[in-house]
Design a protein that fits this description.
This protein has about 280 residues and is of the alpha/beta class. The protein contains 9 helices and 12 strands.
C-alpha cells in the first residue's frame, strides 16, 4: 500500500481529548430526538432521516455516550459507528441484552474482530478482574480507536486487547480494507481498496497461552473468515473449552449444530446466536 493511502486512512484518528467532538446545536437536538423514537418501523425510518441530516457533509468524528459508555465514533468510515449513534435500539440491542443476562463478574468473554471495541466495552460493564475479556483486532487504525475507547472508559485493567487476527495458522495475512466501512475489512475478501499486512494466530494457541480454561461467551465478526478461525479450534479443543454461547455473523461452513450447539435466533445486526446444549 502506498504511503499516501496509509496517511489518508489515518487522517481522522485525532489525539484530541474526549469531548472535543461532541454534537452541538441542531445536531445535538436531532441526536436526542433519535434516541426517543419507538422501536418499530416508523422509528427506524425517522432515525435514518435524522442520521442523514446530522451526518451531512461527512461528519468524521463524534464523541458521544451510548449504552452508558463514553465512545469516540467515526461515522464517515465505519458502519457500526453510524448504527451506534442513531439506531442503538435496532442493531446490537438483542446482543447487549443477552450479555447483560449472561455475563457475571467472573465470566470469560472472547471478542474476535473487536472493531472499535463496543462488545468488549459492554462486557466490561459486567465483568471485573476475577473474569477475563480477551479482544482481537488486527487493523492498525481500528486498534488505535479501540485503545482510545478503552482509555476513556478506564477499562485498561479489564480489557486485554490483542493486536492480531485469528486464523487457521500463525502467519501474516493481507487484510483487505473497506475504506467506507473499516469494520468490513477481511482476510478472505478483496474489496479492491488496498491491503495492510497483519499477524494472525490460531485461536486454540492464543487461549492456551493466556491460560483460558472456559468461555462463557464468544463473539466473532471477521467478514466471512469465521470458518478459518473456528473450524481448527473445534477440531482440537476439549469440549470444556467450547463457548457456552456464540454470537457469529457468518456461520456458513461451520457445523455448529453437529458440535452440540442449538440455534437460538438471527438478530437485526445479522448475528446468529447459538448456545451449547
Amino acid at each position: 500500500m502506498s504511503k499516501k493511502k496509509i496517511e489518508s486512512l489515518n487522517e481522522f484518528d485525532s489525539p484530541k481529548p474526549y469531548g472535543h467532538y461532541k454534537l452541538l446545536g441542531i445536531k445535538k437536538v436531532l441526536f436526542k430526538l433519535a434516541q426517543l423514537l419507538p422501536k418499530n418501523i416508523f422509528g427506524f425510518k425517522i432515525a435514518l432521516i435524522l442520521r442523514k441530516i446530522t451526518l451531512q457533509n461527512r461528519v468524521k468524528i463524534i464523541d458521544q455516550t451510548q449504552f452508558e459508555l463514553r465512545l469516540r465514533l467515526f461515522p464517515a468510515d465505519n458502519l457500526g459507528d453510524r448504527f451506534l449513534l442513531f439506531l442503538p435500539k435496532f442493531f446490537e440491542y438483542d446482543e447487549f441484552q443477552l450479555m447483560s443476562n449472561l455475563l457475571r463478574k467472573d465470566s470469560t468473554f472472547i471478542d474476535i474482530g473487536g472493531n472499535m471495541g463496543i462488545y468488549s466495552l459492554v462486557a466490561a460493564k459486567y465483568i471485573n478482574t476475577t473474569g477475563r475479556i480477551l479482544s482481537f483486532e488486527p487493523n492498525p487504525q481500528m486498534i488505535n480507536r479501540f485503545k482510545f475507547n478503552i482509555g476513556i472508559n478506564q477499562f485498561d485493567q479489564l480489557i486485554e486487547l490483542n493486536e492480531i487476527g485469528i486464523a487457521d495458522k500463525e502467519s501474516t495475512f493481507g487484510l483487505a480494507l473497506a475504506n467506507k466501512n473499516l469494520g468490513g475489512s477481511s482476510i478472505v475478501l478483496d474489496h479492491g481498496e488496498g491491503k495492510v499486512m497483519v499477524k494472525c494466530r490460531p485461536l486454540f494457541d492464543v487461549l492456551k497461552d493466556n491460560k483460558i480454561t472456559k468461555i462463557d461467551l464468544l463473539k466473532i465478526d471477521i467478514e466471512e473468515a469465521e470458518p478459518l478461525a473456528l473450524n481448527p479450534f473445534f477440531e482440537i479443543a476439549p469440549r470444556t473449552l467450547f463457548p457456552k454461547m456464540i454470537f457469529i455473523e457468518s456461520d456458513e461452513n461451520i457445523e455448529l449444530l453437529k458440535l452440540g450447539y442449538k440455534f437460538v435466533k438471527r438478530t437485526r445486526a445479522h448475528n446468529s446466536i447459538y448456545v451449547l446444549e
